[in-house]
Amino acid sequence: MRIVLVGPPGAGKGTQAAFLARNLSIPHISTGDLFRANISQQTELGKLAKSYMDAGNLVPDEVTIAMAKDRMEQPDAENGFLLDGFPRNVSQAEALDELLETENMQLDAVLDLEVPEDEVVKRIAGRRICRNDSSHVFHVTYKQPAKDGVCDVCGGELYQRNDDSEETVRTRLEVYHTQTEPIIDYYKAQGLVVTISALGKVEDVTARAMEALKRGE
Ligand code: AP5
Ligand code: ZN
User: Fold this and answer.
1) 14 is in an annotated binding site
2) Ligand 2: distance of its center to the CA of 208 in Å?
3) Strands in the chain per DSSP E
4) How many CB atoms lie within 10 A of CB 109?
5) Could you give the CA distance from residue 95 to residue 101 in angstroms, rounded to a whole number?
6) What is the pTM assigned to this prediction?
7) Is 71 tagged catalytic?
8) Is the ipTM of this complex over 0.95?
9) Annotated catalytic residue within 2, 50, 71, 88
10) Which listed ligand is nearest to 153 at the C-alpha?
11) Cα–Cα dist 46/63, whole Å
12) What is the pairing mode between strands 127-130 and 158-159?
């Protein structure tokens, strides 16, 4: 399956993607995680992306599309993938369509996670992620690690993301509404959108998502 996950910052895309990708046996491709890995390895791409990410703005399309394309062309993505955080505006969605068309591939679904803004703010405020791998995600109340400040998966140190400050979150939400939400209409026109509520327990949301994807097939 080829799936795109959309939803506001803090909706739980990364959290759900980990379970869905495992259930569906497809790789989880998160452009946010790819950028954060580049930042921690201090690559040129990481240096460029950091200033945009810290301000809550989108990294320029040209580098983002090239990075996503490169990842989607890896052998493990041949039979499907779950995209998390990409595409994030209409021009990225058009670039993805072009790429899929040249490969003679199609998207199966766009899963839209709906969460009210006050819940998103709570989820982001308490989020802690792992220094070794930003896909290891915890929450100070909703998903506590067994040992305070230590990642359950790899023992790495947990910290708060730079872009999770209150001011940056406000910018990220605005960017989501103005630049990312329009892709929902773009994909609705292709009949691909399935919307679910992302409220409630993580496992209940995963079950809802799996059900919706089955129905959408
Ligand atoms: P990215 O990393 O994609 O951030 P985002 O879209 O803002 O999403 P988040 O990672 O904040 O949230 P999430 O929905 O994954 O929630 P999570 O599962 O962590 O992008 C960051 C930046 O990178 C962008 O601002 C941009 O600069 C750049 N970028 C990335 N892609 C780009 C692109 N395509 N183009 C240009 N720039 C790009 O959950 C949040 C918290 O809630 C966690 O603590 C979790 O434990 C908790 N939680 C999850 N589910 C539940 C639940 N059901 N109940 C209670 N708590 C829950
Ligand atoms: Zn870890």
Assistant:
1) yes
2) 27
3) 2-6, 28-30, 81-84, 109-114, 127-130, 137-139, 158-159, 193-197
4) 22
5) 10
6) 0.96
7) no
8) yes
9) 88
10) 2
11) 11
12) antiparallel
Report residues whose beta carbon is within 6 angstroms of any ligand 1 atom. Answer: 7, 9-15, 31-32, 35, 52-53, 56-59, 64, 85-86, 88, 92, 123, 126-127, 137-139, 142-143, 163, 172, 201-202, 205
Full set of structural domains in the chain with CATH: 2-216 (3.40.50.300)
Token readout for 54 is: 């810290």
Sequence-distant (≥ 6) Cβ neighbours of residue 156 within 8 angstroms: 130, 131, 132, 133, 136, 150
Known catalytic residue: 208?
Answer: no
Quick: pLDDT tens for 100-128: 999 999 999 999 999 999 999 999 999 99
3-class state of residue 196 by DSSP: strand
Place of tokens 């329009």: 182
* 57 annotated to a ligand binding site: yes
Is there a binding annotation on residue 9?
no
